[in-house]
Write a structure and sequence with these properties.
The chain is α/β, with parallel strands linked by helices. It has 13 helices and eight strands. Helices cover about 40% and strands about 20% of the residues. Helix 7 links the parallel strand 5 and strand 6. Helix 5 packs parallel to helix 6 and helix 12 crosses helix 13.
């Protein structure tokens, strides 16, 4: 086990913020960006997934994602469950919406930053925050049907047992409650292991193209002495990946009982560049994974809004 560094929550929060002018420009040009991105995906996959929006790498700043994810909630009276919060920095972006209460959980404990964030949100935003160290599959300390919104960013792609995580989310949500999640890079996209790509564009699909021995040699040769705690090095070491495609995520959501209200697909510029610059390697990739669509190697992230149907649905 390597010794990992932890980025301060203040730096993470600051880095996630987008200036108002840039947000406005993204809002204005988002339909055009979606139209532009659609040319890279097949009609078949668009018909199967029926995305409400496509993004060519960027176009949905964090503040917009928060509003988009909470659109069904009476946010002032809502209890939000933030899953996989890490240091807790993402809690602040939800607290800025001024919900009634936020409960945040993570498999690992970040006591120092959690304590600071509790005080910050109470003093600056007047929002009550509770942090718990707990696996996402077991939130037994939360009552059935007591949460208005479940929310997570960059979490689902790391859940080895995502079905159990979703079942627990379904249990704690109120009828007509919502689940918002953004997750990626997806396993089958460039850098799906959060590591491949170190050393150049030719390496972005190493996690899919190399055998286990070759991959480990590559991994060790580019592993840094001071990896961040939430970096690809740690995820590879712990094998924290769900290894699902977009369609497999959607099928799982529906199997658990959720309705998919909206799905946004985000393409990866590195995947597209790899396909153009290394066409033979890209064909090799497609030939190796014949049970996947070519589009699966180009879609880097998903944003979803899910609904828990009412009990009389």
């Amino acid at each position: 086990m390597l010794n990992y560094t932890k980025s301060p929550w203040q730096e993470q929060d600051k880095a996630s913020q987008t200036i108002s002018l840039k947000r406005l420009l993204y809002f204005i040009f988002r339909p055009l960006l979606s139209l532009y991105a659609s040319k890279y995906l097949s009609k078949e996959i668009l018909q199967i997934l029926k995305p409400s929006l496509l993004l060519p790498g960027r176009g949905m700043p964090l503040e917009d994602r928060r509003c988009w994810g909470a659109y069904r909630c009476d946010i002032k009276n809502a209890v939000i469950l933030v899953q996989g919060t890490g240091t807790g920095w993402d809690v602040i972006s939800w607290a800025r919406l001024k919900p009634k209460k936020i409960i945040a959980t993570d498999l690992f404990e970040f006591k120092d930053s959690w304590t600071e964030i509790i005080h910050y949100c109470k003093e600056k935003l007047n929002v009550e925050i509770e942090f718990y160290q707990s696996p996402l599959e077991d939130h037994s300390f939360i009552e059935d049907e007591s949460i208005d919104l479940c929310a997570s960013d960059a979490v689902f792609e790391h859940c080895q047992d995502l079905k159990s995580v979703l079942k627990e989310s379904f249990r704690v949500l109120k009828p007509e409650g919502s689940l918002y999640a953004s997750y990626g890079p997806l396993w089958f996209s460039a850098g799906g292991d959060h590591f491949s790509g170190r050393g150049g564009l030719q390496n972005v699909f190493n996690h899919l193209l190399l055998d286990s021995e070759q991959y480990m040699k590559y991994f060790l040769s580019f592993l840094q002495t001071n990896e961040d705690f939430q970096s690809g090095g740690r995820y590879v070491e712990l094998d924290l990946f769900s290894r699902l495609s977009t369609q497999e995520y959607c099928n799982l959501f529906q199997k658990v009982g959720f309705q998919i209200k909206d799905l946004i697909l985000q393409l990866d510029p590195k995947s597209l560049a790899f396909k153009t610059k290394f066409p033979e390697k890209f064909r090799q990739l497609c030939s190796k994974y014949t049970n996947k669509y070519e589009d699966d190697f180009l879609i880097s992230s998903n944003l979803v809004r899910l609904l828990k149907p009412s009990s009389n649905y």
